[in-house]
Amino acid sequence: MDIEMREEGHAAVLTLSGRLDLASGSTLKEYVKRLAEKNVTSVHLNLAEVEFINSSGLGALVSVMKEMRLLKGRLTLSNLASYVQEIFEITQLSHIFEIYATEEEALATYHEVAVR
Amino acid sequence: MAEHRLTYRSTLEASEKLLDDLGELLARYRVDRGLSQWVLLVVSEAFNNALLHGNKRDPKKTITVVLRVNQSEIVADIIDQGEGGVEKVRSRRTSGPLAESGRGVDLMERFATSTRFEELADGGMKVTVSFCRSGGREYAKSPERHGGKDGY
Description:
Chain A is α/β, with parallel strands linked by helices. Chain A has a single domain (about 1-115), classed as Transcription Regulator spoIIAA. Helices cover about 45% and strands about 30% of the residues of chain A. Chain A contains four helices and five strands, in the order ββαβαβαβα. Chain A has helices at about 20-35, 55-70, 80-90, 105-115, and strands at about 1-10, 10-20, 40-55, 75-80, 100. In chain A, helix 1 packs parallel to helix 2. The mean pLDDT of chain A is about 95. Chain B has a single domain (about 1-130), classed as Heat Shock Protein 90 (2-Layer Sandwich). Chain B is built from four helices and five strands, in the order E-H-H-E-E-H-H-E-E. In chain B, a hairpin with a 5-residue loop joins strand 4 (about 115-120) and strand 5 (about 125-130). The chains are: A alpha/beta, B alpha+beta. At the A-B interface, helix 2 and helix 3 of A face helix 1, helix 2 and helix 4 of B.
């Protein structure tokens, strides 16, 4: 899995591509942990290029979300492929995560929060 | 029925190699992309359970995947060299929505047409999953459980 990062205001936008599974899940957790150490606690994950996810990948996403919540931050997701979306729905994780259709929609909510 | 036997050491890298090898075989048999995704998901769940819970990441132990394919069906056996554990799989319990593990078996049972867990005479576990190639996807069971305390 590849991770590309850019900053949008206070949020880190990570574009993931490839497989999100047992090995790459650990990579993602480490990556976000390093961001948290730099006080980045608003993280958006664009999953458009994630071609495969399994329960280990889901577990990594849950772990990242919990870490952000502990730090009073946010984790948002967007651009889930229909295959990934179906897995989120079946596992009912679609009710747990903040999921947006597009990255733009997700990032707009960060701006709204900042304006309030 | 064509048969392929793939054997891997119990390492994290093997779980990646399995997906490469399996994807290649499914493409060779012209399995459509939708079904391929579910086969890859289900076999990877069984493989990771074999790696983590069966063989406990002992690189001296191997995991064998036997794939059989014909026009109507895809069947995979995932065989580890651990200490069984069928009872743990059967007795797994619901865990909270924020659990970081324990969704694998539910996903397997959801997306495979059939799933069978079997303890082998030499102590390992064999998981057999099958998929119907004809018609729409068939869900075997409704996933009412979400994760288990043992991480299966």
